[in-house]
Design a protein that fits this description.
CATH architecture: 2-Layer Sandwich
Number of helices: 3
CATH topology: GTP Cyclohydrolase I, domain 2
Radius of gyration: 14 Å
Number of domains: 1
Number of strands: 4
Helix content: 25-40%
Distance between the termini: 14 Å
Shape: elongated
Largest sheet: 4 strands, antiparallel
Order of helices and strands: EHEHHEE
Strand order of the largest sheet: 1-2-3-4
CATH class: Alpha Beta
CATH superfamily: GTP cyclohydrolase I, C-terminal domain/NADPH-dependent 7-cyano-7-deazaguanine reductase, N-terminal domain
Strand content: 35-45%
Length: about 110
Amino acid sequence: MKISIGALRFEAIMGVLDFERETPQMIEIDCEIVYSYSDGDYLDYSVAADLLESTVKDGKFLLIEDALDKLFRKMREKFPQIETIEISISKPDILPNCRVCVSDFRSYL
């Protein structure tokens, strides 16, 4: 099975610049999860979305890369049936003329 969580938007502290450490900015997460499903053992997408958001908000990360690493660990701990997962974190408002995004992929097969 595959679950996609797209355009999960919320404000959080993330970044290295002084103003990024003081004022929450818009963060957007896209996540695609492939998992093994059997006999009603499903992956609850609402729990996954909440975990993505709360992990980033609570972490107040300096770097997007560090947030991604933490997200992969937390998602795998919560949902051991994950086979592959791709996560992208965007900061859509940090630059005036573009959307900044960092993404990574993990396989547990």
